[in-house]
Amino acid sequence: MIELLQTSTAVLLTVTALFSLLVGSFLNVVIHRLPVMMERQWRQEATEFLNAEGHALPTNGDSAPYSLWAPRSACPQCGHQITALENIPILSYLFLRGRCSGCGTSIPLRYPVVEAVTALLSVAVVWHFGFSWQSAGGLLFTWALIALAVIDLRTTLLPDSITLPLLWLGLVLNLVGIYTDTASSLIGAVAGYMSLWLVYHAFRLLTGKEGMGFGDFKLFALIGAWLGWQLLPLVILLSSLVGAIVGISLILFQGRDRAQPIPFGPYLAAAGFIALLWGKDIMALYLG
To answer: N or C: which end of the chain has fewer CB within 10 A?
Structure first.
């Protein structure tokens, strides 16, 4: 099987697409459940701290196990448990016509979109790198960026449980030069974090407001650890440009309040993916 994947591009891409659809289905679970898990943990820690300080607070009523694996997925409206046939990526959504089989409640379009995008971007990674360790790492990098981008769009959160392990993994992979050399990777992680950290504090001193969250610092550091410091200017330029265009469009055409924050993580994630595949070519073209 490994020999077939090495010699047949069509088989390699087909297997990647099918497997990535399953990964996309799991990413939907992560996107939905991880913010809830974080909120429950914060409530529990806050309650324990206040009780230790002498405040008699009732314990958190959310005592049932809740993780990425349990309980079983169910319709939030009627509690109908999702069967295996109802959990086939994309096909189940089409077969059910986007509605719960129990109560007819609409299923968010986000679910098949995440699955399809995961498959398409994964195929692009494998098409670019071929059967290699770069593809394996690139898939993990891409899947993490998808989860972070959608979570940030929904909740304005960038969970440390995703960003920090991926940051360390980028540093480890580049010990053997998977994407860049060790020095560039280490400098990229430090420069990625510190550059946005400085922008954050400069903006806060000038305006008295917080311009971005600390999760953005860690995400930019993650990208620097994987791709090296040389591609950080490209990533920040692309993400800022797209973010500015989208933000201005929302204000002009949808009447969005200028004071309402716009998550920056999705634009960093999109720019990081572009830099993974074509960053060096873009930089060479520009410098040339």
So the answer is: C
Which residues touch 6 (CB under 8 Å, ≥6 apart)? 12, 131
Lowest-confidence segment of 62-76, 143-157, 273-287 by average pLDDT: 62-76
The confidence band for 63, taking pLDDT boundaries of 50, 70 and 90, is low
The CA-based diameter of the chain, rounded to the nearest angstrom, is 67
Length of the chain: 288
Interatomic CA distance for residues 118 and 21, integer angstroms:
7
Rounded to whole angstroms, the Cα distance separating 147 from 142 reads 9
pLDDT mean over 196-223:
90
Report yes or no on whether pTM surpasses 0.85.
yes
What is the residue whose two structure tokens read 């096909």? 91
